[in-house]
Amino acid sequence: MTPTAAERGQETRARLIAAAGHLIVEEGWGAVTTRKLAARAGVRPGLVHYHFGTVTDLLIEASLEALEREVGIVMGLLAQAPPGPLGVELAVTGMAQYSADPASTILTSEMMLAATRNERLRTGLAAVQGKWLQAVAQWLNEHGLTVEPDATALVLGALLDGLVLHRLVDPELAVPVDGPLRRLVGLPEATNRPATP
Amino acid sequence: MTPTAAERGQETRARLIAAAGHLIVEEGWGAVTTRKLAARAGVRPGLVHYHFGTVTDLLIEASLEALEREVGIVMGLLAQAPPGPLGVELAVTGMAQYSADPASTILTSEMMLAATRNERLRTGLAAVQGKWLQAVAQWLNEHGLTVEPDATALVLGALLDGLVLHRLVDPELAVPVDGPLRRLVGLPEATNRPATP
DNA sequence: TGAGGTATTGGGCAAACGCCCAAGGCGAAT
DNA sequence: ATTCGCCTTGGGCGTTTGCCCAATACCTCA
After folding, report:
1. pTM of the model
2. B24 touches strand D (CB under 7 A)
3. Positions in chain B whose pLDDT score sits under 50
4. Pairs of CB atoms within 8 A across A/B
């Protein structure tokens, strides 16, 4: 019943990776330190450099893992959308009101900036980004949006991050963006808009 | 002819602010240190804390100053665009091919993330952002784009940053985004597209 | 039961960190 | 000529950093 040494090791690794994901968002990529990681994971500082060569190695592995999980979740949601333009409609209006937990956007932005200064992270991030782009383009295509699905997917992805980032700075900035988004994906103008309190 | 002490002081201040602007982009907000700043500015380390209370104070002042200068430049360019939809057309296609020096986008993103963790920076950044938004919305309106100029300006600004950031990670990602951008601002589809080699 | 392997402990090292300050330099004002 | 005020020097304070390592605990398997 007691876990083996190897199992405890995997548990410690996982705790450190989870701690890294939180700390990057809360303190910023460059402010995550060996001791903060250990404290957050509830382990001794020496373990950080037993399981990972450098702090940067841990940050890269943790952030890529978190991002891939996030992408998987969003793609799962997209897959549940109704077929045809109605699905796009729902997804777009959902995105327009997107004001959920900004942690994933902060993490993504931190990764992009860190990727500017680390080639290995840049490569890994580009791979995830490409996969996401291709999947969304195909999703758009399958939902009847056949005009430039690739370009539209790129713009949509970039827009999502940029929008959340801007709102983060000024939460008062609650301008509804349904209209521009609808035009972007080629949907007709909304005829009846529900009253927003 | 020899500068007074006060004049030399202003020169030193300016050199430190310029150094901070470069270092934030090159090393990341959290990795800018007293000694790196002094070395980059060509002054002694002690001077940093003579002219600025803390390193963070210097970073905030430098980044806000750089961003305001950048916004001023872009708005000057917009002011030179021809009137009417033709001006929007030129500006949009120019933005679509925007792949200029990404330093300003990196700086802006670093500021947004740092603003998450510093209320004073958040306030200052929100002010600049609001000014930019209002100016672009008015510009769009004056150029005949009267449908939701505020929302469109917000989407446009967020999109600019997001696009550059994504391209930074994957420079191969050279999908032309003219089409989605044209739809976004409500321009008709382009009829004759020049061949791109 | 003893050997072998993995995970963990706890301490430590050199370097870099933010910030501080007494002493001195040097035009400007008196 | 002397005082005044700002800027600069050079060094140093205590803390924190990334990374390392000998010793130990504990499970597994022969």
Report:
1. 0.91
2. no
3. 1, 192-197
4. 162
